[in-house]
Amino acid sequence: MLHFVDVGVYLGRTSRKLLQMSNSPDLRVYMFEPNPAYAARLRKVFAKEPRALVYEEALSDCDGFCDFFIPQSGLKMKGQLGSLVRSQTMKKAHWEVNTHKVKLRSARKFIKGLSKGKVVLYSNCEGGEYDVIRDLFSDDTWKRIYLWSVDIHEYETETSKQAVKFIEDTFASHDITNLAAHWGRRSERRVRRFLRRHIMPLVTS
What we know:
Elements lengths: L1 E6 L5 H9 L5 E6 L3 H10 L6 E4 L1 E4 L3 E8 H4 L12 H5 L4 E10 H6 L5 E6 L5 H8 L8 E6 L7 H16 L14 H17 L1
Parallel strand pairs: 1-2, 1-7, 2-3, 4-6, 7-8
Antiparallel strand pairs: 5-6
Helix pairs in contact: 1-8
């Protein structure tokens, strides 16, 4: 069984491409997208795909609820994403930001609850990756991750810089070498290459 955990799904391009490339019944795709507009669209797109599960939640370091900041256009699906972090970019640009209460789910508890198999963590969650990784490394749950693909977002705050350093130091101290890094924009070509090179061999193995 391959568990593909997609954190910060946006419109689900990567998960959709993976499900199109593989018809394996041993593939499960879990999509976490707290933006209500995007989550609603994902539910429609994947409604007839039994291997896909959509969670209108943010994967984080605990269960509960938290403020989620969405630029006004983001709620109307005009290209702006939301974040658990209200970045300086939002403030400097004087964006009108909607504060939306979202459900949080502990990454550690979720990963522990998965059935046996390989787990891929594919994360692009706009600054929320720090809480996810901190939770996974709070015990030995991180050992269940067979492959990591984590976009790290460094905002202008000192707290954000410390979070980035924590992630880098944590990966280095635990000798995490099973990384499939993305650099820059995740273009269609980069996504296909990532899936062919790193994921498809796991689905067919």
